[in-house]
Each structure stands twice: as structure tokens, then as C-alpha cells.
Design goal:
The complex is a heterodimer of chains A (about 250) and B (about 250). Chain A has eight helices and seven strands. Chain A has about 250 residues and is α/β, with parallel strands linked by helices. Chain A has a single domain, classed as NAD(P)-binding Rossmann-like Domain (Rossmann fold, 3-Layer(aba) Sandwich). Chain A has a seven-stranded parallel sheet with strand order 3-2-1-4-5-6-7, with helices on both faces. In chain A, helix 2 links the parallel strand 2 and strand 3. In chain A, about 55% of the residues are buried. By secondary structure, chain B is of the alpha/beta class. Chain B has one domain: NAD(P)-binding Rossmann-like Domain (Rossmann fold, 3-Layer(aba) Sandwich), CATH 3.40.50. Classes of the chains: A alpha/beta (about 250), B alpha/beta (about 250). The interface between A and B is large, with 46 and 46 residues.
């Protein structure tokens, strides 16, 4: 065995949705540092350009796309394939941003958007990428701590449970196609959230066993491991990267 | 990424199979590795092979169920490379292991599994955990088995029970020492290449039951341990990761 290369994802091409901020951005940056080229998918051009500018020349490809729209998903995957010649890694990090609300309170529009941008968009992207991922591909989808503490987040948790079920089905159905599939359940506070920090995380902090908030780098490193050459026997996992708050049952 | 340079690792049961793969992966990432095995010649052979590749490794043979021997082994490793930063409890198959239904087991045959997978793991952890917490950096990786979650009818009930027990302990210990910079995780293995000494055709049939289409290897286990033992995995603790090619999902 040789030492893991400095760039364990060298030569790989990835699509990362929600790449303009938070965990998606953390993964895009970690992938680039690990040697991959990354299609940065999101709705806001300026955010994607900002991320791309930090990745180095020719590494990041901004693709404006609203994943709630199936046509735009097809176009985004087509653009990534045209630029990179293929796709070996798909990361579905984007999800509707309004996530809280009790079952009686949550607005019908938000309920709809949580499903369209959650399980529906995730499966559409997985299917659109399947021909390119086949052979040696990895899908990384996102769960949430809300799945384990759903009070006040029931609709969001349900959408995440749906994503988890799709991921596990893909792990089994597509294993023979050379495609592996995982869920990361992150806890992450992005730099933009920290910039407006004024004590709102103090209570949360007391509940995180390792005693610190999660950073995009934590999630990025986990994603590099899952997508890397050492993890080809690993599939169908729900990986909790949350400072020890929960364990997957 | 996932560098282990400057770290000292102790891998139990590293004289063969998965343990040898773990020792090599950690050594390749830069760790100085104590290669433990209950059989001294096996530990010496693996350590010599790593040394020949230019890695830092030393044999530390002892029986993990013998507390005095564990203490002495950890002290010997500390004298050579320094205190243990990374402990991988991999030893888990007692010499007596056989596939026997529970109804045919004598109570005296229950003990080796509990002695090794629970008491042996606890003894090794206890020998290194205070130092890890005091230095505010440590990694404990407990190798487990999907037999700890699944129920199967081929006579490994006590092996499974001992793995379930240590997985439960992993979750508790992870919470107790999370704030000390020490993570504790379990890596649960599925059907691996060494689990069945059998004919090619049987192995091929077995591989077809695994979604990724093959059995697991020492390199698979080594790579996963290298990640869990890294600086970059500091936010991941208390987990059981099922390295099984997708064969079973929990």
C-alpha cells in the first residue's frame, strides 16, 4: 500500500448542489483541495462565482440552476458533462431554506418546496447522473439532525427521511453498476452564519459533546473520505458528522 | 489529507488479516505503529515487513485479556515511540472460536468472547485513555462486526453479543470524553476475505450477495481507520460505521 496521494480525488469531476454556501461550499472546497474539478450548482450566480474564484483557475464551474425545476436539472447535468467529459461524484447539498415549523404551522408552499428540492430533486439528479457515475461513482446526499429530533421540524425531517430511503435503495440497486451512495448528517455553522453570531448558538453549544460548532471543513473531509479511493467497500451509510450529538440507530 | 505523522498508534491483533491492513494504513499515513498480536512471531513479522517498507513499526506482542501484560506492552511502546495517540482494538476472534449453536454451548464457552471483545477492549482503552485525555488528543477505533446488529443462525451468538456490548460502550465513552479531544468510534465489518476459508466458487457466490460485488479487504479497513484516526475527523464521534459493501443497512 502506498501513502494516500495528496490529491485523493485527482482526475475526478464532481457536481455539488448548494455549493454557494455552508456544507455545499465546504465540500466543493475540500474536493478542489483533493484534486477534483467541481460543478458548483446553485441559484445565485454571485455566490457561485465567489466560490469558484477561491478554487483556482479551471477548477470550479458555476452553473446557475433551481433544482426545483426538472428541466434545469437536466440542463445543469448536461453542462457539467460537457465541461468535464463525465461525472464521478454527485453531492446533493441544496435544500429549501425554510425548514422549521410545527406540523400545524408549516406553510403548504414550504411543504411543497421541501419535497421538490429535497427527495424529488435528489432522485432526479441521481437518475440524470447515473449513466456517468456508473463504473466508479459516488453519491453523497444530506440528512439532518431534525430526523432524530423532529419536534418543530417535522416536514423537513420527513423530506430528509425520504432522501435517506432513496439513498439506501440506490446503494443496493446500483451497487452492481459501480455506484456507491451515502448520507451525511451534518452539524455545520458556516462562516456567514458565524459572522452574525451574537450568542444564538450558546444553548446549542451545550448540547454538542465535542464542545464546538461544526465547520464546513468537517463535512468536506468526511465527503472526501467517502468519495475517495479507500472507501470503495463502503456504501449505504448514514454518517453522522455532528460532534457526537446523535448516533444512527 | 488524513495525515498521521507524529502520532503513535497501537493496533491489537495486527499480526494478520485486517489488523495487519490497519497497521500498514496508519504507518503509510505517517504514524509510528505498535503491532500487537497474541502470537509474538506474527507481530514481529508484520512489524518487520512495515519496517522494510520504510515505515516506523515495532512489535508489541501481548494478550489483551491480561491486564498486566497490556500495561507492560503499552509502557514498552511508549518507551520506544511515545505514548499512544491512536488505539485500534482489532483483536476480536478468540482462538477457541467455533460455530456452535447456543443450545450446545457450555457456559464456560461463553466467556472467551466476552473476555476478548469486552474486557480485552476495555483493558486496552483503560491503559491509554488517561494519557489521551491529558494531552487533549486521542482516537479510539473499535473494530466490531455486523454480527453485533444482525441475528444469524450459524452459531456465532456469543461473538455477536460481545460485539453488541462493546458497541454500546463505545457510545457511552464517546460522550464522557468528547470534550477532552478524544473521539471513540466503532467500525463494524461485514463479510471479509478472511472470514471464510473456502473455495473460489463459494467466495464468488458470497461476493454476489454484496451490493458492491466483492468481499472486504484489509486495505478497505485500513483506509477507514486512517480517516477515523485523522485530525480531520475530530467532529465525528460515538458512531458505528458499517463497512460491509452495502450488504446490510442499519
Amino acid at each position: 500500500m502506498t501513502k494516500l496521494p495528496a490529491g485523493p480525488l485527482a482526475g475526478k469531476a464532481a457536481i455539488v448542489t448548494g455549493a454557494g454556501q455552508g456544507a455545499g461550499r465546504g465540500i466543493a472546497e475540500a474536493f478542489a483541495a483533493a484534486g477534483a474539478r467541481v460543478a458548483l450548482v446553485g441559484r445565485t450566480r454571485a455566490k457561485l462565482d465567489d466560490v469558484a474564484a477561491g478554487l483556482g483557475s479551471g477548477v470550479g464551474l458555476p452553473i446557475v440552476c433551481d433544482i426545483a425545476e426538472p428541466d434545469q436539472i437536466e440542463a445543469a447535468v448536461g453542462a457539467a458533462v460537457a465541461a468535464f467529459g463525465g461525472i464521478q461524484i454527485l453531492v446533493n447539498a441544496a435544500h429549501h431554506t425554510i425548514r422549521d415549523g410545527t406540523l400545524l404551522e408549516v406553510a403548504d408552499d414550504d411543504l411543497d418546496a421541501l419535497w421538490r428540492t429535497g427527495p424529488l430533486a435528489t432522485l432526479r439528479l441521481m437518475r440524470a447522473c447515473h449513466p456517468y457515475l456508473a463504473g466508479d461513482g459516488v453519491i453523497i446526499n444530506f440528512g439532518s439532525g431534525a430526523q432524530f429530533r423532529p419536534q418543530g421540524y417535522g416536514a423537513y425531517a420527513a423530506a430528509k427521511d425520504g432522501i435517506q430511503a432513496l439513498t439506501r435503495a440506490a446503494a443496493v440497486e446500483w451497487g452492481k453498476d459501480g455506484i456507491r451512495a451515502h448520507v451525511i448528517v451534518p452539524h455545520v455553522v458556516s462562516p456567514s452564519m458565524m459572522a452574525t453570531y451574537n450568542g444564538q448558538y450558546d444553548e446549542l453549544l451545550t448540547r454538542i459533546p465535542v464542545g464546538r460548532l461544526g465547520a464546513p471543513e468537517d463535512i468536506g473531509a468526511a465527503a472526501v473520505f467517502l468519495a475517495g479511493p479507500g472507501a470503495t467497500f463502503l456504501t449505504g451509510q448514514v454518517l453522522m458528522v455532528d460532534g457526537g450529538m446523535q448516533y444512527h440507530r | 489529507m488524513f495525515e498521521a505523522a507524529g502520532r503513535v498508534a497501537l493496533v491489537t491483533g495486527a499480526g494478520q488479516n485486517m489488523g495487519a491492513g490497519i497497521a500498514e494504513a496508519l504507518a503509510a499515513q505517517g504514524a509510528a505503529v505498535g503491532v500487537n498480536d497474541i502470537v509474538a512471531s506474527r507481530a514481529e513479522a508484520v512489524a518487520a515487513a512495515l519496517d522494510a517498507k520504510g515505515f516506523r513499526a515495532v512489535p508489541v506482542p501481548f494478550d489483551v485479556t491480561d491486564e498486566l501484560a497490556v500495561r507492560a506492552g503499552v509502557a514498552a511502546l511508549a518507551g520506544r515511540f511515545g505514548p499512544v495517540d491512536i488505539l485500534v482494538n482489532n483483536a476480536g476472534v478468540p482462538a477457541e472460536m467455533a460455530m456452535i449453536p447456543f443450545r450446545q454451548l457450555e457456559p464456560s464457552q461463553w466467556r472467551p468472547y466476552v473476555d476478548l471483545n469486552i474486557y480485552g477492549s476495555l483493558t486496552c482503552i483503560r491503559a491509554v485513555i488517561d494519557g489521551m485525555c491529558e494531552r487533549r488528543w486521542g482516537r479510539v477505533v473499535q473494530i466490531s462486526s455486523d454480527a453485533g446488529r444482525a441475528g444469524v443462525a450459524f452459531g456465532i451468538s456469543m461473538y455477536g453479543a460481545s460485539k453488541s456490548g462493546i458497541e454500546g460502550f463505545v457510545r457511552h465513552l464517546s460522550q464522557e470524553i468528547a470534550k477532552d479531544g478524544v473521539t471513540v468510534n466503532a467500525l463494524s465489518l461485514g463479510v471479509m476475505e478472511n472470514a471464510v476459508q473456502s473455495e473460489e466458487e463459494v467466495l464468488r457466490r458470497l461476493a454476489r450477495t454484496v451490493p458492491v460485488g466483492r468481499l472486504g479487504t484489509p486495505a478497505d479497513v485500513g483506509a477507514a481507520v486512517a480517516y477515523l484516526a485523522s485530525d480531520e475527523a475530530s467532529f465525528l464521534t460515538g458512531q458505528t460505521i458499517h463497512l460491509n459493501g452495502g450488504k446490510a443497512q442499519y
